[in-house]
Amino acid sequence: MMNTNTVINVTRQLEFSLDRRAGHQPARRAPQRISRAEWWFRQMRRAVNEALDWSATPPAPAEQPWLLPARRPQVA
Question: E strands of the chain, at which residues?
Answer without folding.
Answer: none
